[in-house]
Specification:
19 helices, Rossmann fold, about 425 residues, 7-stranded parallel sheet, alpha/beta
């Protein structure tokens, strides 16, 4: 469906077309009219379905350009997601005459204070830095009457629920509350119902997105040969951009280092890096200066990096939910992608549980080296057939003697090596 048919302004729809976005996704079609209608909304849809525009487009429309205080607040669980939402808002805000600001930890707080004095209408930030500014008195959200909680289930995983509740308590009582999440744990649902009034529900099933646009393959990889298998996958697939997900920060850094030694353009992304380092790595990866990004699950949520053609699970994810978030980095916005999971022999039980959660069996693949090493079966030569065929016996032949040539190889009796004298004497007589 066209964005203008959903009530989006013509100049905003034109800006989206310039960015290559022409048709609304299912979650946008369902959520935009509800948000424009002023309803509280709970939207459950997996990553890569266009949730950011689903709340930003109607939100920007309702903000007043002449306002001097914060009117809307978007809360994100990670710096990367906050920056990504800020980038989308930066491209659309001028159309509506709105200014926006992203607040996150690891950045210069004095510079953020200076920008806050200009009175941006839209604030996008992480819970910790937002609370920090509230304590310092440099940010006021008392007049904020529109609040968006993005990737709410990730907030729960990171222990931000109490921080989110503190922020909600400080906003206007007549606020419109929008909650977007890939999954809906009981605690998040309880939080939503506590602060919402007669919310409308939007839900997209995971099967409609994941299995249709992403080819999913499992490759057997013993632990000691996992790096070799990964290199075989890279050489065989020749990806444009590839993300390799590891379970720990140390593993992600080690895999990135090993790949670099082997000549691949790669770098790591994990929580031990400073914000400057992480921003540089993401910038280089988006610009295709890096071909492979080795990351922990911190990068699996909400990041929208155009051109990711392949995702590799170097380590199995914690569960089905994390698997969906990881492979959701490819096959986004209707494009196709490929997800490859490296499995060690002792991990097949976990794989079965993962497939049960997906309600689908993953296709078994094989590495390029194994494919090359497999030798074709040799055809049976005519001469070998002739040797195996038994010659017909004459009707006068002793069948046992002819077949065995007078010998019985199965006999355990040992024949004497030389003839005895008794035998010779008997012959003379």
């Amino acid at each position: 469906m066209d964005f203008q048919a959903l009530g989006v302004r013509q100049d905003a729809a034109k800006t989206l077309r310039v960015q290559g976005i022409r048709e609304a996704t299912p979650v946008q079609e369902a959520a935009i009219p509800l948000v424009r209608g002023g309803y509280d909304v709970i939207a459950e849809a997996q990553t890569g379905t266009g949730k950011t525009l689903a709340f930003l487009l109607p939100l920007l429309e309702k903000l007043k350009p002449q306002g001097k205080t914060a009117q809307a607040l978007v809360i994100a669980p990670t710096r990367e997601l906050a920056l990504q939402i800020g980038k989308v808002a930066e491209g659309l805000a001028p159309v509506y005459g709105i200014t926006s600001l992203v607040l996150y930890g690891g950045a210069d707080i004095e510079r953020q204070k200076e920008k806050l004095r200009r009175g941006p209408a839209l604030i996008i930030g992480t819970p910790g830095r937002l609370l920090d500014h509230l304590r310092r008195g440099t940010l006021s959200i008392a007049h904020v009457n529109r609040v968006v909680l993005d990737e709410a289930d990730e907030m729960l995983h990171r222990g931000f629920v109490e921080d989110v509740e503190s922020l909600l308590e400080k906003t206007a009582k007549d606020r419109q509350f929008l909650l977007f999440s890939a999954t809906m744990p009981d605690r998040i649902r309880a939080l939503a119902l506590r602060y919402m009034h007669a919310p409308k529900f939007v839900k997209l099933t995971t099967e409609t997105v994941t299995l249709d646009t992403i080819e999913q393959v499992v490759v057997n990889a013993p632990v000691e040969k996992k790096l070799d298998r990964l290199c075989e996958v890279i050489n065989g697939e020749n990806p444009y951009l590839m993300m390799v997900f590891c379970r720990t920060k140390e593993r992600a850094q080690q895999v990135a280092t090993d790949l670099s030694v082997r000549g691949y353009l790669t770098d790591a992304l994990h929580g031990d890096m400073t914000q400057v380092q992480r921003s540089r790595v993401l910038r280089d990866f988006r610009a295709a200066k890096l071909q492979i990004l080795c990351a922990t699950d911190i990068a699996a949520r909400g990041l929208d990096i155009e051109g990711v053609t392949h995702v590799v699970n170097y380590d199995l994810p914690q569960g089905t939910e994390w698997y969906i978030h990881r492979i959701g980095r490819t096959g986004r916005a209707g494009s196709t992608g490929k997800a490859i999971t490296l499995i060690a022999p002792h991990e097949y039980e976990k794989l079965r549980r993962l497939e049960a959660g997906l309600k689908s069996r993953l296709k078994k693949g094989r590495s390029e080296r194994r494919h090359r090493e497999e030798k074709p079966k040799k055809p049976v030569v005519a001469e070998q057939k002739k040797k195996q065929e038994k010659k017909p016996l004459s009707k006068y032949a002793n069948r046992k003697g002819t077949a065995h040539k007078g010998r019985n190889p199965r006999s355990r009796r040992q024949k004497p090596a030389t003839k005895t004298n008794v035998t010779k004497r008997s012959k003379l007589r």
